[in-house]
Amino acid sequence: MAIRNRSHRPVTAAAPQRGMSLLGMLFWAVLIGMVAVVAMKVFPTVNEYLTIQRAVQKIADSGVTTVPEVRKAFEAQRDIEYSISTIGPNDLEVDSSGDHVKISFAYDKEIELFSPVFLLIKYRGGSR
What we know:
Elements: H1 22-61, H2 67-80, E1 93-95, E2 102-114, E3 117-126
Antiparallel strand pairs: 1-2, 2-3
Helix pairs in contact: 1-2
C-alpha cells in the first residue's frame, strides 16, 4: 500500500522547493529601496515644475500684454505658491509679438543622490 498525502496522490519523491532565497530577497529589497530614495528626492522638483507650468499658463490666459505685467504677475504667483523657489520673474522669456503673449522658461535642477553622485534634470516649459 502506497502512502498518500491529503490530495490522495501517492508520495513518490520530495517536491522541489519553490520560492525566493534570502540573497534574492535582499537584492530586491536594496533595489526597491534605491528606487524609492530617488523617487522621494525627485518628486519635489517635479511638483515645483508643474506648479510653475500652471502659474505660467494662468498668467498667459489672464490677458496680460506687456513684459513688465507678466513679470509682476509671476512675482505675485510666486508669493502665493511657496513651492516656486528655483526661478524668478527675470528668468521668464516673454514673447509679446502677436495677439497672445507666449511665456517660456527653462532651468536645471541638481539633486544630490549621495556624496559624489548628482542627478541633473533639465526642465523646460511654457504657455500654449
